[in-house]
Every structure is written in structure tokens, then in C-alpha cells.
Hints:
Low-confidence stretches of chain A: none
Number of helices of chain A: 9
Distance between the termini of chain A: 59 Å
Strand content of chain A: 5-15%
Number of strands of chain A: 15
CATH topology of the largest domain in chain A: serine acetyltransferase, domain 1
CATH class of the largest domain in chain A: Mainly Alpha
Structural class of chain A: alpha/beta
Oligomer: homotrimer
Mean pLDDT of chain A: 91
Amino acid sequence: MATDIRLKERLPDLTDRIVDSYQECCGIHHLGHCPLPSFDAVVGIAQDLKEILYPGYQKRQNLHMGNVVYHVGDLVDSLHDRLTQQLARALRHDFRRRHGKECGENELPDFEALGQEKAVSFLDTIPQMRRTLALDVQAAFDGDPAAGDLDEIIFCYPGLEAITIHRIGHELHQLGIPLIPRMLSEWAHSRTGIDIHPGATIGHSFFIDHGTGVVIGATCEIAEHVKLYQGVTLGARSFAKDESGNLVRTTKRHPTIESHVVIYANATVLGGDTIIGSHSTIGASVSLYESVPPHTIVMLEKPSLRFRQAS
Amino acid sequence: MATDIRLKERLPDLTDRIVDSYQECCGIHHLGHCPLPSFDAVVGIAQDLKEILYPGYQKRQNLHMGNVVYHVGDLVDSLHDRLTQQLARALRHDFRRRHGKECGENELPDFEALGQEKAVSFLDTIPQMRRTLALDVQAAFDGDPAAGDLDEIIFCYPGLEAITIHRIGHELHQLGIPLIPRMLSEWAHSRTGIDIHPGATIGHSFFIDHGTGVVIGATCEIAEHVKLYQGVTLGARSFAKDESGNLVRTTKRHPTIESHVVIYANATVLGGDTIIGSHSTIGASVSLYESVPPHTIVMLEKPSLRFRQAS
Amino acid sequence: MATDIRLKERLPDLTDRIVDSYQECCGIHHLGHCPLPSFDAVVGIAQDLKEILYPGYQKRQNLHMGNVVYHVGDLVDSLHDRLTQQLARALRHDFRRRHGKECGENELPDFEALGQEKAVSFLDTIPQMRRTLALDVQAAFDGDPAAGDLDEIIFCYPGLEAITIHRIGHELHQLGIPLIPRMLSEWAHSRTGIDIHPGATIGHSFFIDHGTGVVIGATCEIAEHVKLYQGVTLGARSFAKDESGNLVRTTKRHPTIESHVVIYANATVLGGDTIIGSHSTIGASVSLYESVPPHTIVMLEKPSLRFRQAS
């Protein structure tokens, strides 16, 4: 080992310069006594929720109707505690950011109590969420000739993974939880290539096949029985700014998709006023910036291709 | 900690409602004494197979010709046992699903023996698979000016990762193993963005550059020396249904690509009757629904773009 | 367990055939006494660098200005040692590959000393890198109406993850380190779907939204305040070959993007001579093979779509 001690002696000075930069340029460090939610803890919660939603597929094997109640009861109890802690952190952080309060100040709301209340409200939605997800699994089977059985869909379909995490994140988003729903959606995005903002509203029997590159914006409204393929963007056309030149972050910027619509690979549908009428089909690679009435088929014109012999 | 005990006392009731939902809506839980294959175990098998296929790159370092036989022998022995167990589970599960049998019933075939037989048949293909993969690595080097050397390709190229896992999964698919080949392909898809169905037939010297968004359908046939770029879809045009309105799951729905074809980024080739003749080139973003003869170049017509000055 | 011993007795022979293949087809194994860099070690280094760049978000919680110096000092010290080792391995491997030397030969340069020198040079760039990344975070906030605050961007934005890892890898690339920059870029690609070659030059205030499918080639030059959306390719048009038919690996093959350019989803810009002038906008799904002057808007012509009623 050829370590040059003089080189290594430069490290304390470098450490000081790094720490100085924490004081100089703000906004990309979080130093203080008030912890943020933990990405790893949020992922652990999502994995245990999946274990409850699809028992027997993920972690614990040899579950049967005689022992599953203990397994689920144990998970629910643990999820209650962990959700309470993480939701409280997210709520406290958001409050502080918006009101400029320090972490230990007296007049802060009781975020632990608020977190627990919202954790229980969320857990309460699991049975209904399972009913919706069962319809999503069935829609995948009905929509893909390559699917062998329902088990294959639960094990292997990234579209089901993405909608499962979205339904969890959307419930938390509806309960007013900041930050954590986006952590969940980005965790799903990272593993599936499917980017669904937790604000999007999506009906039952939803199926995304293959999925890589799909983007569904925050203000999308999607009715039931909609099928998307890889690379579909349901996006914004342009962004409104207020009189100070800041982005307006609340308008409906993303399209509305009515029921029984199919959108093929790499199609792009943009704009908050765009409505795709029910039972319509949007062909592969179509770019659409306007509404279409129900029962419409939109395809690329006989594509303008040039064919020639290689020399 | 502000835990409200009364709120927490609602959890046992919630647990009961969740467990009730396992009885109510079937198909998205697996409760019973007959375990499914484990996704984690299948991933562990794939990682050890990669260690054998590309020794010295992955886990164990300081391998040399004097000690590698012990390392490989140990891995092969362990893979034999784990493959036997997982293949047996997949075969048993598939048999039960198709015949409606319970797990312990007497007249079931000996799935352990069947699993072992297929595990050994699979392991037997490793030397030949290495020869094919060596050609794939070379094709990547010959096809990408940014590749520094072969090591960089083995370490860093998602296209090689995807075709490696595909060649493993396709062998298992050919041996009639259900479910596990799709677990493998989805594991690769999750990490590379490349979605190759294990049913697809792919010749040697195959190279996918960048790869995110590539989809290759179950009934594709791809000859040797084919190169694809990111976002290429080799997909189905439409799905046949039988007289009961169910999807027909066996027809050839995806294209045939002859040898020495290059397909550039985001091109889409659809349909089971579509044949891309050898030595043809399909340009970026082309959508093609028909066959082309050998030595054809297909490009977008001088694209219909509108240029204007920003106001 | 129904293990058939005779079947299992075939395994030693199979092991021998596998090891024989290591001698037969070269290039896809690394056997010898000279270890390669470890992908896992490189990922560990990247994770600790992120902990220094964005303290308080990743691993350690409850950091404050009173204790952060110890945490950072400890990480810097450990990073020095690990970087030295991995950089030395990469440099030694590259030297051997280019000069055909064995690992222990006397006349080899002192790669440990060289690795340490470059490790310290790299660590020295962290404060400046933090300044650039703070501008990237701000650009994401200014460019996306769905962003709630800067914390959400640091936790959840794959575009920030990709540019963070790119800025690390690009510094190492500028220091002449082989292999490791590509390991880093592929690690980011795997988790974000964004594939930026470490050779690309990218100015500050860079933002990629959603990001899946983005490809930025090795010889791209991107000025400051550029915004890209998912699926954008900045790629090569064709590859030059030398008189022996080998690819030329050094020419500028990828476009130049001037400042304040926005390129929307799934647009493709190709060619080393292509320059997108400053303040230009390239619309979604546009394919562009030629330069455009500053302040130009390029859109698809009113797309040639066919609308019809479903029968």
C-alpha cells in the first residue's frame, strides 16, 4: 500500500470546506433536530402492505386459512406503529416548511396523534383496496394473451406493481399526507419504469402492459376499464404562470380518459382540457392535443415512410 | 408518543375484515399447503448462474484457473438442489391449476423427480450458452463506438444483462417450466427497462444498445446479428378471440426479424405476419405494420416539421 | 425428496465442461490474480457520496451543524481509502489491457499511488459539485408545477438522481479513470431509466422530468438551463469506420444543445454536427437531424391522424 500521508492530511481541510458549503448554499441539506420521513422505512411499509394485499406470494410461504390471521394481525399492528411515525414526520415537516416553525416549539399541533388518526384511516381502506386490485388483476388477464394465469400477473406484471403502489399512495394523498405518496410512486417508477403521480385518479380494472416509459400526470382522471401500453404519456401541454412569473401548481393540466379506452404504445395525449371519449382507441405513436368523442379510433395516417434498396 | 389506545383497538376488527376478504374475492391470494416458487429464490439462482457464465466479474474475486473448478463445482451442486426445488414447485402448481388437484393427493406425478430431471437438463446447456453469450458480447463491442473493452460490456451493458437472463429463461421455457421464466424476464425488465418474453427465439450475436423501453413479444423470431436500440417495440397488432370472446393465447402475434437487421430507437414493428428481410435497416421512430424484403432501408419521410421563431 | 443420485453424479463432468469453456472461449471471464474494480464497492462509494452531497436525506438522521462535521469527516476518510483501491484497480486493469502486461510485473507504474492522487483530486471537487447540484435542484423546482418543495426533489426525482451520479462519474471520467464512470452511469440508468454517458458535458441548472428512456450520448455538449422530458434521445446518426472496417471511437457523434433549450417527450436529436440554438423548443416526438438557429420552435406538423367511428 502506497498511501501518501501528506495527501491524506488534506482531508480534514476538505471536510471543513464541505461543511462550510452546508452553511453557504441552502436547500439541499437537512440539518436539524426534526427528522424527515425515511425512504427506507416507507419502502418497508409498502412491502408489508403488499404482503397483506397478496398473501402467499411475497415473503411468508405456507400461509393457510388457519394461520393467516396471526400473520396479518401482526403485520397490521406493526404497520400501525410505523405508519404513525412516518406520517407524523411528513406532516410536521410540511407544517414547518409552510409556517417557518422550529421543531420543538410549543404551539405545534400534536403530529403524532394526527399521524395515528390518518394511519388508522388508511389501514381501514385495505379490504376495499383488495376488491379493486382483484379487478385490476382480472383486467390484466383479460387484456394480455401472453398471461398464463392470475399468479403470473401477481408475480411478474410491472403494471400491477405500479397500480398497487399507486392505489396505496393515492389513498395517502387523499388523506392529505405530503411527501410520502411521492416516495412511493418513485419507488414504483424506479422498478417498473411506470411513473404515476399519486394525485391521479384511476378507476378499477386498470391495466398497463409492459409499461416502461408510461407517464401519468398529477391531475389526470382515468375512468374504469382503461388499458395503456408502454411509453404512453398522459401529460401537460404547457404550464400557467402567475403575475410574478411563478408556476401555477394547482390547475388541471393533464387529460381525462373515459371508460373502456385503449391507448397503444408510445402515444402521447396532452392537455387539461383534452377528453378521450369512452370506448375510443388511440393508435401507437399518435400525438393528440385535442378531445375526441366516444367510440373514436385515432390512428397515424398511412405513415409517410420512404423505402429504398440498400446500395 | 401520543398513541390513542381506542384507535389502536380497532385493529383486530380490521384484521378480521382483511382475512374475510381472502375468502370473499379469490384469485389474488395464495393460501394453502402447496408453496409457489419463490421470487427471491429464483433471483438468487439467476445471480449464481451469472457468476458461472461470467466468472471473476460478479461476486467472487481472485479466481484463477487453479481454483475456479472448486468455485464452479460448488455453485453447480447448490444450483442443482435449488433449481430442483423451484422447478418442482412451478410444475406442481401448474398441474394443480390445470387439473384442480389438491397438493397432497396420491395420484399426483412425482414433481421432485421431474424437477430434478429438468434442472440437470438445463444445467447441461451452460457451456453452449457461454459460447452464444461470447458472441453477444462481441456483437456489442462491434456495434457501439462508446464501448471501451469487453469488460465494460460485461459489467455495464443492460442489453447484455437482458439477453443473458433471456437465454437462461428461454431454456427453461423450452423445457416446459411454467412461471419461473417470466419471473426471470421481469427481474431483468425491472433492472434494464428491456422486456423480452421468454418465449421469443433470438439468434446469436444479438445486441440491444441503451435498451430502456424495448419490448419483444412472446412469439417473436429473431435471427442472428440483429441490433436494436432503445424504445423498439416488436409487438402484436391485434388479438384474436375465440367464439366465446376469450383471447386466443397461442397464435403467432409478433414479427419475424431476419439476420443482420438494425432497428433504430423507438421504432415499432407489429404483427405476426410481418417479416423484416435480412440486412434491412428500420429508421428511428418508424411504425411498420407490413413486411419488407431483404436489403431494404425504411426511414420516416423527410419529417413534417414546422419551424417558427419564438415570439 | 426424490433426488436421483445417478443424475446428480453427472454434475462433476458438467463442472469440468464449464471450466473447459473458460479456456476455450476467451473474453467473457476474468481469471487471474489481478482483481477488477468491484461493482458493489463502486455503488457503496456512490451512496456515501450522496450522503455527503445531500446530508440528512439518505442514511443518517438527526444530523445538525454540531455533529455533521464528524459524520462527514468519517465518510471522507473512508471514501479516500475505498476510492484509492477501486481507482487503482481500474487504472491497473486498463494499463494491462492496453500493454498486455501481467499483474505482478516489475515495470508496472505504482497504481496505488496514482489511485490515491486521483481519489484526492476527485474528493476536492465536492464543494463545487454541491453548488452546481443546488442549481439543478432549483431548476427542477422552477420547471415542474407538480413539485411541492425542494425536499421532494431530493428524495423523489429520478432526474436529480441521474444528474447527481453523472456529475460524480463525469469528474472521474475527466480524471482519466476507466470503467468506473460507466459502472456509475449504468447504476443510475438501472434505477432511473436515464442513460447518460459519463463523457457528456452538461451545464448547471439541468433538469430531466420523469426521465424514463432518456439517452444522452458520450460526445454530447449541453449548456446550462436545459430541460429534457422522458424518452428524449440525444444520439448518433451513423458511425464512422476506419480503413480496416473498425468503428472509429473518438469522433463527435452526438449533438450540441445550447442554453435554455427545452426538448419535450420522446423527441430525437441526432448527429455530431447538429446544434440546437439557445432558447429553442423541440416539440414532443419530433425527429431532428439538422441544426436549428437560436429562438426556434420545432413542432410536428398538424399530425396526420385518421379519425373514424368504431363500427
